[in-house]
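Worked problem 6 (solution included).
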Amino acid sequence: MDPKNDAPAGDNGEEKKTMPPAPEVDPSSEGKSVPYARFKEVVEQRKATEEALKGVVDELVGDLPEEFRSLVPDLPPAVKAAWIRQAREAGLFKKHSAPAAPELDTKRPGGKPPADLNQLNATQLLSAGYK
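Solution. The predicted structure is:
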């Protein structure tokens, strides 16, 4: 071997030139080089997915009562959908009705018309007062 070229000597005394070694491929870098067409395709798919998600979130906001739509914060579509879902589970978008009327006391006469006391004599008036 010749120390100058690191190539073995040939049979006829000439030195053989060897091809330079191929660059070693780092296994961790495999797949990092993506053709531009594939990259463009993936970007277009992502844009389409984001638009579809934005449409779904807009429908969710549209399903809310009108007075609550202004409460929804301006967030990215995925985060906004999660926020709306959490707010619904917490009961934020439920309309609260007025409290129910208290139950009537059954011992007090409520809807009865008053008795006509003009036709009663004195004894009947006294007995009606003690009932």
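Discussion: Residues 54-93 form one domain.
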